[in-house]
Structures are given as C-alpha cells and as structure tokens.
Amino acid sequence: DLQICQHRAPTCCTKKMEESYQAAVRRERTQSIQALNFELKYMIVGHITAFQEAFESLLRFAENRTSSLFETAYRPMAKEAAEPVKELFTDISLYILGAETTVESAVLRFFDSLFPLVYSRLINPGITDLSEDYTECLRLTRQDINPFGRYSKNMVTELSKSLWASRMLSQALSLGIEVINTTEHAALTKECSKALVKMQYCPHCQGLTLIRPCVGYCLNVMRGCLASVSELDAQWREYISTLEYLTNEMAASHDLEIALTGIRNSINEAILHAQLNGPQLSATVDKVCGQPKQQEGNLSSDNIVPVKEATETQAFVMAQVSLNHKRREFINYMKRSRTFYASIAERLCDGDLVMRDSSTCWNGEDVV
C-alpha cells in the first residue's frame, strides 16, 4: 500500500511511515530555508536597528541645537518654544519611520505655533493679553501674511529632499524582512513533498540509511519545489538596485545630516525676517485680529541677538560617521546577495544533503 516508496525489493516501510516522512520533509525544508535566510535577515534587521539609532542620534543633536538657538538668541520665548521644537522633531522622526504625514505639514505646523510667540515676545514684547482666541487668530494669519518669508518654504524643500530617501530606505528594509519571512513559510505542494520523500527517505525503506541523493537529482527536485520562490529573482535584483539608489541618494547632495543641522539656521533666518518686517506685520495683524492689551511703557523690541553657533559635538560626528559606514557596509553586503533567490536550490543541495565525493548515490529509483 505504499504511495511513494514503491520498489521491487522487499521494504521495511509502511504507509504511515511515508506520512511521517512527508511531515519531516516539510519541517526540514522550512528549517533549511530559515537557515539560509538567517544571515540575510540578521543583516537587514541589524541595519534597521543601526540606521534607526543613527537617525535618532542625529535628530536628538539637531533638536538640541535648535533649542539652544532660542536659549541663546531668543530667551524671552525659549521656554514656550520648547514644545513646538519637540513636536517638529517628533514629526520628522515619525515621517522617516513611515507614518502617514508629510514634511510640509510638520514644518508649517511648527511655524504656525512659532508665529504667536515671535509676535508677542519679540515684535511686540509689551503684549500681556495673549488669549487663546488671539493666539489662534495669529496662527491662522501666519498662513496669509507669511511673516517668515521664503525661509519656511525653503526649509520644507531642503528637508523633503533629504528625508524622502531616509523614509524610503526605512520602508524598503521592512519590506525586505517581509519578503524573506514570506518565502520561509511558502507552502509545499503535494508533488513537491512526495518528490522530497522519494529523494531523502525512500532509500531508508531499502535499509540504505547512509546513502545520499546524487547532486543532479537533488538540483532537479529542489528547482521544481522552489520554482515559485526562485521567480522572485528578478524582483529581488531590482530591490537591491533600489536599495543602492536610496543609499546613494542619502549620501549625495540631499544629505540628511546637513539638512537636519540646517534646521537651526533656517529658523533663525525666518525669525530675523519676521523681526525686520515687524511694523508691517503689526499693522496687518491689528486689522485682522484687533489690538491686544499692552503693558505701560512698551518694551523695546530691538533685541535681535547674534546667534552663537553651536560647535559640532563629538556625538554628532560619531553618529554621522556611523551612518555613513553602516550605509556602505550594508549595501556591499546586499549587493553580494543579488543572486540569493536564483541560487536557492544550489544552496539547499550543498553540504551534507548530497553525496559529492563518493562514486555511489541515490537517483530516486536505485543506487547508482
């Protein structure tokens, strides 16, 4: 009653043993593909973590650098500006990690929050009554009167270019893991599991427990079993090319590090622009939002302080070097994995599974 290991000679197998063998080859096939995938997956997961740590380190540095701008140059509004600055960098971090947001909305939301502070603490420092309604009016007016000139738009453009490649790379790495996980759990067809049993376990039914499959026979069986997986070859090569493109984009002119550290200067230029145009802004705001209450004896708004440039700290340099090194190391490794799905059958037929150095092997029917 054997279905797979039928043979002319007497056999020590039963139908139940054949079923056990089928379960064994399914398990072994999954384990062997997992073992092949392990190094590739380990490399990608390791780099996802390394990239994210480097991103976070750069973001923290840029955030601290931006906060120090308010503490050194715009002290009257430093405390209140802390929250908008924190929100801006949180939004940037979420964008890089793939959240449904845009760089433009993050930057413009920041400038919406900044304008009421600049207006009431720097342009008209005598304002005492900054009610919620008045603050909201200032926020909405910012979009119409454009107090920060071209600087807010420039900041959107610069950040969008550099953050786009980082966001795409982050998503591409996650996609790579997804592809690898899917191939590990691709179901075996009945024909495939029977062919694997015939190749690996039918010799046992003849008492030939030490004989192993012939190389050519193993390759034929594995290629048949893995046809659907090896079809990924063209897409995988395309995927590696895309990773290469993205890492080059990140390292090219739209450099993430330069864009993040440039946020401080962009904000400073934007605030200076608003202060220089203070009288015109005040006239427009008075028409739209009304006149707020003033303290007796208006405080001088002539408090534009030259910005003390923060020195490049060692932590930032280390994060920058680390990110560049990780990019190069990662893409070189991934380029070596270009043929991963094309050569998966060859890899599975390597090592202990087949008989390489002996003159006798199993060809599916007999020892040859």
From TrEMBL:
For this UniProt entry, what is the primary localization, expressed as one broad class? membrane
Task: Give any single GO term for biological process.
Answer: positive regulation of canonical Wnt signaling pathway
A single Gene Ontology CC annotation of this entry is:
extracellular region
What keywords is this UniProt entry annotated with? Cell membrane, Glycoprotein, GPI-anchor, Heparan sulfate, Lipoprotein, Membrane, Proteoglycan, Signal
**Which family is it part of?**
Belongs to the glypican family.
In its keyword annotation, does this UniProt entry include Metal-binding? no
Alphabetical list of InterPro entries matching this protein: Glypican (IPR001863), Glypican_CS (IPR019803)
| Name listed for the protein in its UniProt record | GPC5 protein
Tell me the membrane topology, using the record's own terms: Lipid-anchor; GPI-anchor
Localization (cell): Cell membrane
Q: What does this protein do?
A: Cell surface proteoglycan.
